[in-house]
Q: What sequence folds into this?
């Protein structure tokens, strides 16, 4: 009588974890991207939480608090349309560097909100506009930089890379300054990386390396 073949042993989580990181850490560009992306996520999420918690602390109308999220979502939609056109028309590295600098330029004006001599109405308007425009480069960074990484990575490493890529006691302005520093650091990392700056347009990714 024929015996059914034994099912293949499933790889362990620990084995996948080790193999994924060992592969990733041997790719200089990928390591730089992971560090920059982690700082970017930390800074951006921190700014969003700081804004919402500050507005809640001062009993701001719920509609105005909700508008903060609506504004950035609308600009992300605009950025998504832009990203679809940029990948085949401009060098990815240059576009990413500009996007990171643009993010810092959006957050910096918030340092002047809710300060001495600035009314709450003017402060809210400043934060609303700056935070909304901040959503513009998010889809561009995702589509171009992370798109390049996933395009170059073996299929078996896709999930592991995704895992690798994936706080207001100081007052509003102090908290914004802390997270702006994280964004600025991520921008410096991107600007100083010749490998990132040299990422070509999408049609040249076949010859580029991680």
A:
């Amino acid at each position: 009588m024929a015996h059914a073949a034994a099912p293949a042993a499933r790889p362990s989580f620990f084995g996948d974890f080790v193999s994924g990181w060992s592969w990733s850490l041997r790719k200089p560009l990928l390591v730089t991207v992971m560090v920059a992306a982690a700082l970017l996520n930390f800074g951006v999420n921190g700014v969003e939480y700081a804004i919402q918690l500050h507005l809640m602390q001062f009993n701001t109308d719920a509609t105005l608090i909700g508008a903060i999220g609506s504004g950035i979502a609308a600009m992300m939609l605009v950025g998504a349309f832009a990203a679809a056109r940029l990948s085949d028309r401009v060098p990815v590295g240059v576009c990413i560097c500009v996007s990171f600098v643009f993010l810092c330029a959006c957050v910096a004006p918030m340092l002047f909100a809710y300060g001495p001599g600035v009314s709450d109405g003017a402060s809210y308007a400043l934060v609303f506009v700056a935070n909304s425009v901040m959503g513009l480069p998010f889809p561009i960074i995702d589509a171009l930089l992370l798109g390049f990484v996933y395009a170059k990575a073996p299929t078996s490493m896709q999930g592991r890379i995704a895992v690798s890529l994936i706080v207001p006691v100081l007052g509003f302005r102090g908290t914004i300054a802390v997270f702006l520093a994280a964004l600025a650091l991520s921008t410096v990392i991107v600007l100083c990386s010749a490998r990132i700056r040299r990422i070509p347009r999408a049609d040249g990714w076949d010859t580029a390396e991680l």
